[in-house]
Specification:
Layout: E1 17-18, E2 21-22, E3 28-29, E4 33-39, H1 45-59, E5 70-76, E6 82-83, E7 89-90, E8 94-95, E9 100-101, E10 104-108, H2 119-130, E11 135-138, H3 141-147, E12 155-157, H4 163-169, E13 176-178, E14 183-186, E15 189-192, H5 197-210, H6 212-221, H7 240-244, H8 248-259, H9 267-273, H10 278-289, H11 293-311, H12 316-322, H13 328-339, H14 343-357, E16 360-363, E17 370-373
Parallel strand pairs: 1-9, 4-5, 4-10, 5-8, 10-11, 11-15, 12-13
Antiparallel strand pairs: 2-3, 6-7, 14-15, 16-17
Length: 375
């Protein structure tokens, strides 16, 4: 079973040489926090830059950027530049062969399409994990960690945008997918959805290793107001109901619902994932939307079905199943109750409106539907 999602892994002692900082007077000290970044080709620059900037602001005083309290390195198979998803390249300062240990290794992912896993990178990560080094996955870095077998038995935070791809690829693995939070800490495995969530994770680790004062200093200097906790919901912009919800529990619950249309996830399971009772979940939904979680869940699945009928020519049975309705007749009754007509009637009505908007007259003689060009 996955371990406590909020447990922070202890920093292990390594046999390899640790990162050190040499002061101007020749004294040597070890930073309180050191992180090595492994970049997957086409990585997202935001996740890397946000995380490193948070470390930089906490590492020194007066914005001098010396790696005193924090240290970081870019690690690669060699020193050749690695291209990010936006085309900007970053050159590793260390290689997989260098005998340097870190408190954490962070795998920075990005675009999934057209990327072949690097066997040397996987060997490096597996070797570090065997030595006890906690591994962080930023953005789609979690995919590489899972392919390396490092996420088995763990909770894994994935962006809602990639959640379905992750679940499909690792369906036969014992990995609990979390797509309704910014990041997840599960023992020595830390995964983050990416984007600005990487800054939230960096500040979280800074507070654990350097204390709240340096963590707050870093966030303030980055003009980062209101650092979010791990369980904060991933922001969405494409739904009115999401942006109108003020309660973070409601936002997380609605994300879980949207990610689990087929099969639909039980309401009590949603409550368990949020660590609240079903009664509490019902109260916050009633307060936000004036309906129960079950009614809201049914509403958004019906709206998704209506969108599919609008935008695709898929059979009505397939639409019903994809939106979590196993009984097509029951789906038809619910659809008629919600929208005033059957799914078949709704699609036929939309098709007529579309033909008229394209300048095509629709007639219905005894022989069936025919089209005549409008002159």
């Amino acid at each position: 079973m996955p371990s406590n999602p909020d447990s922070t892994p202890p920093v292990r002692a390594h046999r390899r040489k640790a990162v050190e900082y040499v002061r101007g007077n020749g004294a040597v000290r070890r930073p309180e926090l050191s992180i090595g970044f492994v970049l997957i080709p086409k990585f997202t620059l935001m996740a890397l830059a946000g995380f490193v900037e948070a470390l930089r602001h906490a590492a020194d005083v007066n914005d001098r950027s010396r790696q005193i309290h924090c240290a970081w390195s870019i690690i690669g198979a060699n020193h050749q530049p690695i291209a990010s998803s936006c085309g900007i390249t970053v050159s590793p300062g260390k290689t997989f062969q260098d005998s340097v240990s870190y408190d954490y290794l962070a795998v920075v992912g990005g675009l999934l399409a057209g990327h072949d896993d690097d066997a040397g990178m996987i060997r490096y990560l597996k070797s570090a994990a065997q030595r006890g080094t906690p591994i962080i996955g930023l953005c789609t870095g979690s995919f590489l960690m899972a392919r390396a077998g490092l996420m088995d038995g763990s909770r894994c935070c994935v962006s809602y945008y990639h959640a379905e791809e992750f679940e499909n690829e690792f369906a036969n693995r014992n990995i609990e997918v979390v797509a309704d939070a910014l990041f997840t800490v599960d023992g020595p495995r830390i995964t983050c959805a990416g984007g600005l969530g990487a800054v939230d994770l960096a500040v979280y680790l800074l507070e654990r290793h350097l204390g709240s004062q340096r963590a707050q200093k870093s966030a303030a200097q980055m003009l980062f107001n209101g650092v979010r906790p791990p369980t904060a919901p991933q922001p969405r912009i494409n739904t009115t109901w999401y942006s109108s919800a003020r309660n973070p529990l409601v936002r997380r619950a609605t994300l879980l619902m949207e990610l689990h249309f087929s099969p639909a996830i039980p309401i009590n399971t949603i409550a368990e994932r949020l660590c609240i009772s079903v009664k509490q979940l019902e109260r916050v939904f009633e307060c936000e939307f004036g309906m129960s979680p079950a009614s809201f869940y049914r509403k958004i699945r019906l709206e998704a079905a209506r969108s599919m009928l609008d935008e695709t020519s898929r059979p009505i049975t397939s639409v019903a199943l994809d939106c979590g309705f196993c009984d097509v007749s029951h789906f038809g009754r619910l659809f008629r109750s919600a929208f005033g007509e059957s799914p078949r009637g709704y699609r036929r009505h939309r098709e007529r409106k579309h033909m008229l908007s394209q300048g095509t007259a629709v007639s219905r003689p005894a022989g069936g539907l025919s089209r005549q060009s409008v002159r």
